[in-house]
Specification:
Blueprint lengths: L2 E7 L4 H15 L3 E8 L8 H6 L4 E4 L14 H9 L2 H18 L3 E5 L2 H10 L5 E5 L16 H14 L5 E5 L12 E4 L5 H4 L9 E4 L6 H8 L7 E5 L7 E5 L2 E5 L2 H10 L2 E4 L3 H9 L4 E3 L6 H12 L3 E3 L5 H8 L6 H8 L2 H26 L1 H10 L3
Parallel strand pairs: 1-2, 1-4, 2-3, 4-5, 5-6, 6-7, 8-9, 8-12, 9-11, 12-13, 13-14
Antiparallel strand pairs: 10-11
Helix pairs in contact: 4-5, 5-6, 14-15
């Protein structure tokens, strides 16, 4: 049995649901998650579904996140300048993580795309393996074909991705489809992590559209479209604390606070999903065979690449705005790819456990070799395995 410590980037729900899925896989295999740390300023902001599923103590700490403007777009330079001013606070987060590692003595640190963990690995240089997990690491894969434009935005995204994976032992890149590993960049390609609750659903198709938005200002687009299409039933999930759990804006247009169980029930029954191109939401819809329209948040290069990649994988269509008329026309011609996707996703537990077994075995071999055979040979051994 190995002990794992999770560090999770807390913005949105994608990395949180990935952590839940891996938590379930490790528990079923007899391993133990000893601590979970989430990068967000306030524990009260942590979604209830995450606290209910993770049965160990959860700590939160200040960590970088995106800054949005009044136009609903990501403000890249404001994001950078805001976090430069918080360097002192983030330094304390790195120290806090180091204290938790010392306290729990895990065999593996698992980083779900959190920059604080990357900085910890760079400055503290732990002997414990640090394994990074995220779709973003696929963008560093030598064979991944990305957007043909927005070079500066792609450079900044890749820079951020590299900062999260500083001195990592291995990067596990979640992918919609199978790809070969990139050993040069220490990237192993894996299927997506999908929660057991999703796999237990029985999909139907009822006459309503389901929507999920990561920023509540995007609701304005849905409201404006619906004003001319009031016969179309839409249920939209958002995170706007100024409203009640379920708020009916008008007949056939209802907004719901983010609720994992409720969202999954509605995804099971909807005729299609519109979302802001978060990787996890797209994967869950693909698993259930639901057509998807992916509408990236403006200036959010990661979501733009997700939409680009998801469209190629057969998930659905992408657009720059909530063009529900186009999506409704698409529903009748969508080709269901759930069978192939399920076959790929069915290998998840095996591939993840194999990678964890390999990195822990190599770390043990390196430690033993170092003690018995001298530092020069030990360093050569570590280089041979990419450490």
């Amino acid at each position: 049995m190995s002990k794992f410590l999770f560090v999770v980037q807390g913005e949105g729900r994608g990395h949180l649901t990935q952590a839940i899925s891996l938590y379930e896989i490790l528990n079923q295999a007899g391993h133990q998650v000893v601590s979970v740390m989430v990068g967000m300023d306030n524990l009260n902001n942590l979604p209830t579904f995450f606290q209910e599923k993770i049965k160990v103590k959860i700590d939160t700490f200040p960590a970088p996140s995106l800054v949005y403007g009044q136009t609903k777009a990501v403000k890249i330079w404001d994001t950078i300048s805001t976090h430069v001013k918080k360097i002192g606070k983030y330094r304390k987060s790195v120290q806090f993580l180091a204290q938790k590692v010392e306290e729990h003595q895990p065999d593996v640190i698992v980083n779900f795309y959190d920059m604080i963990c990357g900085l910890y690995a760079q400055f503290y240089r732990p002997t414990i393996p640090v394994v990074c997990i995220g779709h973003q690491y696929l963008l560093l894969h030598k064979s991944f074909i990305s957007l043909p434009n927005k070079q500066i935005d792609r450079f900044l995204l890749n820079l951020n991705t590299r900062l999260t994976s500083l001195r990592s032992t291995r990067k596990l890149a979640l992918s919609f489809v199978h790809m070969t590993d990139d050993k040069v960049n220490n990237i192993a390609v894996t299927p997506p992590l999908i929660r057991n609750e999703v796999k237990q659903l029985t999909p139907t198709s009822k006459p309503f559209i389901l929507a999920y938005i990561t920023h509540h200002k995007l609701s304005e687009d849905i409201i404006n479209w619906h004003s001319d299409h009031r016969d179309v039933e839409i249920h939209c999930f958002w995170n706007n604390k100024e409203f009640v759990d379920e708020w009916q804006f008008r007949e056939n247009l209802t907004f719901h606070q983010v609720n994992s169980e409720k969202f999954l029930r509605m995804m099971q029954d909807c005729s299609g999903l519109i979302c802001t191109a978060g990787f996890e939401s797209v994967c869950e819809a693909m698993y259930l065979g639901k057509p998807i329209m992916m509408v990236p948040v403006p200036n959010h290069i990661e979501q733009e690449i997700n939409a680009w990649d998801g469209q190629r994988a057969g998930a659905g269509i992408s657009d720059t705005q909530f063009n529900l008329s186009r999506f409704i026309s698409y529903l009748s011609v969508h080709q269901n790819v759930s069978e192939n996707f399920k076959a790929w996703q069915g290998q998840t537990a095996k591939i993840f456990l194999s990678n964890f077994e390999e990195v822990t075995r190599k770390e043990t071999e390196i430690y033993t070799f170092k003690r018995g055979n001298g530092s020069l040979l030990a360093r050569s051994f570590k280089r041979a395995f990419g450490f």
